[in-house]
Amino acid sequence: MHGSRWRREETGTSRHCRTGAGASRRPYIEHGARRVRVAGVTANPDGVWMRQQARNLAIDERLKNVRFLLHDRDAKFSGPFDEILGDEGVRVIKTPLRAPRANAVAERWVRTVRTECLDHLLVLGRRHLEQVLCGYVGHFNTERPHRSLGLAPPAGSPRSRGSPSTDVLRRDVLGGLIHEYYAAAA
């Protein structure tokens, strides 16, 4: 699916990835907007856990504008998972075998969260990983510029270019691992 702008909030993707703490996280990414949502964190994701995550997405009405969900062929995405999403009007698309580029947006997010965040931290457990991911996803969605969005963050407006007319202040995210800079109010 090439980045058609008219599908902005309608296509989601899922990618399972593991951390050094033995916990697994499940991100959902809106393709057009590049907005990330983390559905959950667990040490042992299985079919039952995945079905519960699908139910949670449906109950929280996060699937309201989603037309498609792209996911890999992992056994955790069993028939009941797809059925729950189908009942919500979401068409499930499975990636082709041995085609990592078919889910490139999710693969790129996994690489980004590892290199910018998780490689620099010692994650102490599931709850700590949830806190770290919430902080990073907040930064990723509201502050981090994306080339595919014209250097705008997924949930924000494009940054003004040029020198700011006021003082520049710094806000630390994740205990100073990431720095966000912004113009001070006049």
Distance between the termini: 44 Å
Q: Write the CATH homologous superfamily.
A: Ribonuclease H-like superfamily/Ribonuclease H
The number of helical segments is 4
Q: What is the CATH level 1 assignment?
A: Alpha Beta
Strand proportion, as a percent range, falls in 15-25%
The level of helicity is 25-40%
Helix and strand content put the structural class at: alpha/beta
Largest sheet: 6 strands, mixed
- Report the CATH architecture: 2-Layer Sandwich
Q: Would you tell me which CATH topology applies?
A: Nucleotidyltransferase, domain 5
- Tell me, briefly, the overall form: globular
How big is the Rg?
Answer: 18 Å
Order of helices and strands: EEEEHEHEHHEE
| Total number of beta strands | 8
How many domains in all? 1
Low-pLDDT parts are 1-13, 16-22
Q: Average the pLDDT over all residues and give the rounded result.
A: 78
Secondary-structure map:
Layout: E1 11-14, E2 17-18, E3 24-30, E4 35-42, H1 47-59, E5 68-71, H2 79-87, E6 91-94, H3 104-116, H4 126-142, E7 168-173, E8 178-183
Parallel strand pairs: 1-5, 5-6
Antiparallel strand pairs: 1-3, 2-3, 3-4, 7-8
Please give a structural write-up:
This protein is α/β, with parallel strands linked by helices. The protein has a single domain, classed as Nucleotidyltransferase, domain 5 (2-Layer Sandwich). It has helices spanning 47-59, 79-87, 104-116, 126-142, and strands spanning 11-14, 17-18, 24-30, 35-42, 68-71, 91-94, 168-173, 178-183. Strands 1, 2, 3, 4, 5 and 6 form a 6-stranded mixed beta sheet that branches. The protein is globular. Mean pLDDT is 78; it is low at 1-13 and 16-22.
